[in-house]
């Protein structure tokens, strides 16, 4: 991982901390913002920037995801990413909601750090790309960008829970952590 990437990542994290500490739309409750001294992160690690092979689903399957407040939201399973972490083969499904930009994918997941070093309901990644992905395309999944959803900081937010298909049986010591 180039040092400038690690520096850019640290800068982005500092900007997010400022948003959480000061912005009116911060998920940190107003009474707690003065004590907020930043989010916890794993150190940037190139091991968790992985090349993933895309399998596109021409007829996306609808997936209903439960949310933290008991509601259900509907997504479309549009792609599957296949990759390795520490030599272990893994797959994650990429989703979007009907009508969303085809270049935006939502990738919620859990891993062996969930509930121990990271938020107990899972974490999210978002993947932006130009146009539609095709079978066999290669994309980079950067787990250094994995983040806890807003519901990790306040019960006023409702967040989709990663479906079981996106529960990884490996440690992903990258991105946001709880402490």
What does this structure look like?
It is a single chain. With 179 residues, this protein is mainly beta. It has one domain (38-177). The protein is 11% helix and 35% strand. It is built from one helix and eight strands; from the N terminus they run αββββββββ. The chain has one helix spanning 3-22, and strands spanning 40-41, 49-66, 72-85, 88-96, 104-109, 123-128, 138-142, 176-177. The strands form three sheets. Strands 4-3-2-7 form a four-stranded antiparallel sheet, with no helix packed on it. It has a two-stranded antiparallel ribbon with strand order 1-8. Strand 3 (72-85) and strand 4 (88-96) form a beta hairpin. The longest helix is centred in the first third of the chain and has 20 residues, at 3-22. It is globular. The chain starts with a helix and ends with a strand. The model has no long low-confidence stretch (mean pLDDT 94). Residues 7-20 have a biased composition (Basic and acidic residues). InterPro entries: DUF1684 (IPR012467). Residues 1-35 are annotated as: Disordered. It comes from Haloarcula onubensis. This is DUF1684 domain-containing protein.
